[in-house]
Amino acid sequence: MLRNKKGQTGLGAGVWNLGVGSDPFGGPVRESVPILDRLPLLAEAGMTYFEAHDSEIPAEQVEEAKARAAACGISCGMYTPSYFASPVFKDGAMSSNSPEIRKLAIENGKKAIDSAAVLGASTVVFWNGREGFDFVLSKNGREVFQRLLEGFNQIGQYAKEKHGGAVRLAIEPKPNEPRANMYLATVGEVLYLISRLDPALQHLFGVNPETAHSRIAGLDYVWDVELCLEAGKLFHIHLNSQDSQRYDQDLPFGYTEPLKDLALLVVLQDAGYAGIVAFDVKAPRPDEQKDIADILTVSAQNLVWLWEKALAVDRGVLQALRDEKRNTAIAGYLARCLYGSVE
Ligand code: GLT
Ligand code: MN
User: Fold this and answer.
1) How far apart are CA 343 and CA 337, in angstroms?
2) 76, 51 in Cβ contact below 8 A?
3) Alpha-carbon torsion 52, 58, 63, 67, what sign?
């Protein structure tokens, strides 16, 4: 629980966070924990909300999942259609050159919204992992943009007509991996796309920025989050860590850049962010089965510690240093709040 947080104070994590440890170079190293058996593991790790894909908890299983989650005291915070695992989406979903595949993608998006409503999740995330290109001119970029507008408009219209404002839609940017270049690459690009959607639907669309994805793009995550807040579009948040611009690592929150993470929490507190704070981390390959949830307990512990330190940051001191134009001293003050003693 995050003390003095507005709105939802519990933490969330994906069922996929507790995976079998495979990577592009090697298969599973742990037994696969059946998806619904991961719910108690999330609860024991201190999560209040679980997140899942339609490929993990399909529409036919949502009632059962809801009951199993309730039995261990958690609920669904976010549900999401998988546009990356199935071979059918190997060259994109809503952006595919093939009209049948675009149609299927839109259908899956609508179904995911229905499942989210049954589960009581207020947010559907769209991480459209295969929308992109490995070779230039393999798709016409201008047509692709129109296809994305068409797809999200149709899905937004459905969400509005069927569920009113009960389910909101958050697009998650990522610049590359699995594609060499992805559409919906950055927060700025997603905000631009939203600004081009049907004005009557734009209020249903927001962003789910993820720490690692901004850092892989070489962008500053604190600013990415500030930009979402300024636009009124911070609908959800995926926290983790990333060791520079290499492959997507999904390391524990608070691990690589704790000072920037402290600053991020100051920003979220000052904005009164009321949504769920969720982790998108990955149990690392070398971790043993019995320790599979360490990635979540470490992330949660770091978050709670940093959250308390962020509450203790004296905003008056920050403002005074800004007024005095002492930028380096601001970095020093944050470091003192993080590493030193706060008088
Ligand atoms: C996948 C991706 C994440 C997304 C998940 C939701 S799936 O693990 O790397 O960033 O949030 O689709
Ligand atoms: Mn994510």
Assistant:
1) 9
2) yes
3) negative
Place of tokens 């809801």: 66
CB burial readout 188-211, b (16+ within 10 A) else e: ebbbebbeebeeebbebbbbbbbb
Please state, in angstroms and rounded to a whole number, the distance separating the CA atoms of residues 110 and 265: 33
- pTM for this model (two decimals): 0.97
Q: How far apart are CA 283 and CA 292, in angstroms?
A: 6
Neighbouring C-beta atoms of residue 128, cutoff 10 Å: 27
Kindly report the protein residue whose alpha carbon is nearest to atom 4 of ligand 1.
Answer: 127
Distance, CA of 106 to CA of 152 (rounded, Å): 8
Distance between Cα 172 and ligand 2 center (Å):
7
How far, CA to CA in Å, does 203 sit from each of 192, 193, 194, 219? 14, 13, 9, 26
Check pocket membership of 302 for ligand 1, CB cut-off 6 A: no
Angle formed by the axes of helices 221-230 and 187-196, to 10°? 20
Distances (CA, A) of 140 to 95, 107, 153, 285: 10, 23, 20, 38
Tokens of 138: 């393999």
Tokens 């948040």 found at: 237
Return the ligand number nearest the Cα of 127: 1
User: What would the pLDDT profile of 40-97 be if each residue is shown by its tens digit?
Assistant: 999 999 999 999 999 999 999 999 999 999 999 999 999 999 999 999 999 999 999 9
